[in-house]
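Sample entry (225 residues):
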Amino acid sequence: MAGSARGGGEALALIGKLKPEVAFLDIHMPDLSGLEVARHLKGDDAPLIVFVTAYDKYAVEAFEVAALDYVLKPIRRERLAETIERVLAEARSGKGPSQAQAALREALDSPGLRSHLPPLRRLPVRHRREVKLLDLSQVPLIFSRDRLVLARSDDHEYLVDYTLQELEERLPQGQFVRAHRGALVNVEAIESYGAEEGVLVLRLKDGTRVEASERRAAEVRRRLR
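Predicted structure, serialized as tokens:
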């Protein structure tokens, strides 16, 4: 064994450092689930993924469709040996992790599976060549620009791998509000709001000014009250 991690964030850091050929990920881990960790593994260095689960039947079904392996808890020695043989056969086939990762991402991006994923406790963002986990309380604004999704935190802008629609589904209920098509605003970061020339304007504590669209204005007002 090359290494072990106590949570999803630590697993991402270890995988980036050790670059293993295969990673066994428990579906339920602190910070990020095994599903989230797998979603953020990219590139030629990404390992093959084997999921470990006790009862997530929805995940088992999705991974079977995507030809991905899983091991049910409690882990039986015979089943683990079968998994290792499958991983070795995958490596010998020449497909490599990149094609397996493509199948994995397709499964993880399916609406049916996404609806079962737990709310994000921290926001994974790209920082240089690593994945950084931001406390949601420190993220006043998530927005799109030039077809990219960015999160602002401490005067920095970080690239986010989720779409705004996915984030709207995955962020804790009530913590963020969709101001317009291209912006999610942290409710706690709003210092004041009011109408300016018929447009609802949110003023954030960091001085940012966000205009709510006509379509979203009523919902924004309702949430802020």
